[in-house]
Amino acid sequence: MYSVFVESKAFKGLTRVAQHKLVTGVLKNEIRDMHGLSITTKLMAAYF
């Protein structure tokens, strides 16, 4: 199983689904053949 954790100010105002779509869009070539991928996203603390 693969796991990705991304913390970014770019997530401000986005739903969790939109955050995950943003991450998968950026990593689409790298994760194309991965199965069992877990994505965790977090808004940077300074941007709450």
Automatic annotation (TrEMBL):
SUPFAM superfamilies: BolA-like. Pfam families: BolA (PF01722). One of its GO terms (cellular component) is mitochondrial matrix. Transmembrane segments: none annotated. It comes from the Eukaryota. InterPro entries: BolA, BolA-like_sf, Mt_Fe-S_assembly_factor. Belongs to the BolA/IbaG family. This is Transcriptional regulator.
